[in-house]
């Protein structure tokens, strides 16, 4: 199983960067996790549109979904003969979910479905389960396994929900690290690098990949803060592919 970091910034991307998005690939399956600004262009550098299996949306904040409305046009243009691409997103009455609804034109190529947070999801050889996080907008962490290796993605979360049991024993934990100690006061629904490292340590994961950085916070500072607690931690590099 491989994971490519399409974007690592929030709530906006600096010049040359992109907001949150991951591409998970395993045995012919290609899953996109979230799709913030800039991610769809980068997705096309990794896989043809026809090879994208599904999209999983952790929550409905625009830094995680703004590019996904464009997928209907990408599919129509580059994969017109395929079955509609499933986009799984949290349900509820949040008006932002309408951003993901395909137009009458796009419904031929994209299908919006509820994220199956209770029963989980099987996509080819991959099994995905979900856990609610600590975030103002209902948000879901994801645990993805191919039967041999396991990846956990925290999505957006604060320290108010303990995700250690959910992440237990994962080979790779991709955790949000919006803040560092110097600017992490009075935050809500997000982690510092130290908190992400503490989560990794308590969960007994193999490696920690930090993401979801403020553009004003140097990733190297977050990496150093995390490594002081959990040495196999590193800052995610955009467009780098990591083995799980």
Automatic annotation (TrEMBL):
UniProt KW Hydrolase keyword: yes
InterPro entries: Metallo-B-lactamas (IPR001279), RibonucZ/Hydroxyglut_hydro (IPR036866)
Entries under SUPFAM superfamilies matching the protein: Metallo-hydrolase/oxidoreductase (SSF56281)
Protein keywords: Endonuclease, Hydrolase, Nuclease
Domain Metallo-beta-lactamase per the UniProt entry, residue ranges: 18-212
Molecular function in Gene Ontology: 3'-tRNA processing endoribonuclease activity
Highest rank taxon of the organism: Bacteria
Cited CDD domains: RNaseZ_short-form-like_MBL-fold (cd07716)
Transmembrane segments: none
SMART domains named in the record: Lactamase_B (SM00849)
Name the record gives this protein: Metal-dependent hydrolase
Species, as recorded: Symbiobacterium thermophilum (strain DSM 24528 / JCM 14929 / IAM 14863 / T)
Lineage: Bacteria, Bacillati, Bacillota, Clostridia, Eubacteriales
